[in-house]
Design goal:
The chain is an alpha+beta fold and 150 residues long. 48% of the residues lie in helices and 19% in strands. The chain is built from 5 helices and 4 strands; from the N terminus they run αβββααααβ.
């Protein structure tokens, strides 16, 4: 097993078992719900802004290990980012899991999020990994409709 695959498994399992930033954010400036009907993942994303910077990001929900780990790692990565930086992170993550960006190259721009590079080989899992991200975008835009991966 390659080092990257080992890191992938360890990181995904760790963030699934011990999700970071899990729970309600009482003073949220935006929140949105997401649902992946094929896997059963459900997530609610909360964001609090300070000017154009994400002060805090939290989530709650139930889902598979990839969905939960993605939400956990996403909230960690977004905190302290400007909205423009968050948009770049979203685009980079989307590219990583859908088009096959090299994982080693992605580490520089995405940090720990690069562990999701292997997800692209499993199209159904791409939806699990991206659900929290699309729901984050809906929270930013204060959209009320539930985000779905279908």
């Amino acid at each position: 097993m390659s080092e990257l695959n080992e890191l992938y498994q360890q990181t995904i399992l760790d963030h699934n078992r011990n999700p970071r930033n899990y729970g309600v954010l009482e003073d949220a400036d935006g929140e949105a719900d997401g649902h992946n009907p094929l896997c059963g993942d459900k997530v609610r994303i909360y964001i609090a802004l300070e000017g154009d910077t994400i002060r805090s990001a939290r989530f709650e929900g139930v889902g598979c290990a990839i969905s939960t780990a993605s939400a956990s790692l996403m909230t960690e990565a977004l905190e302290g980012k400007t909205l423009d930086e968050a948009e770049e992170l979203f685009a980079g993550f989307q590219e990583l899991v859908t088009t096959g960006q090299d994982a080693m190259d992605a580490i520089e721009s995405l940090g720990k999020l690069a562990v999701f590079a292997g997800v692209r080989a499993y199209p159904m899992r791409v939806k699990c990994a991206t659900l929290a991200w699309h729901t984050f975008k809906a929270a930013l835009n204060q959209e009320t409709a539930t985000v779905t991966t279908e």
